[in-house]
Amino acid sequence: MMQSPESKQECWKNELENLPAEQICTRYTEVLELFKQFEIPVIYPDVTVKELIAAFPDHVFRDRGMTKQELYEKVKTCMADTGDTKDETPEKIETITIVGGHDKNGQAEQKEVCLHRGEVVCVVGKTGSGKSRFLEDIEYIADGDTVTGRRIWMNGRPVGEKQREAWENHFCAYLSQTMNYVMELTCAEFLQIHISCHTPEKEKERVEAQIDRILACANSIAGEPFTRESYITQLSGGQSRALMIADIAYISDAPVVLIDEPENAGIDCEEVIRLLAGKEKIVLISTHDPLIALSCEKRIVIRNGGIAKLQQRSACEKEWKVYLEEVNQKMKMIRGKIRNGENIMEQPQGIL
Question: Which residue(s) pair with 288 in the sheet?
Answer without folding.
Answer: none
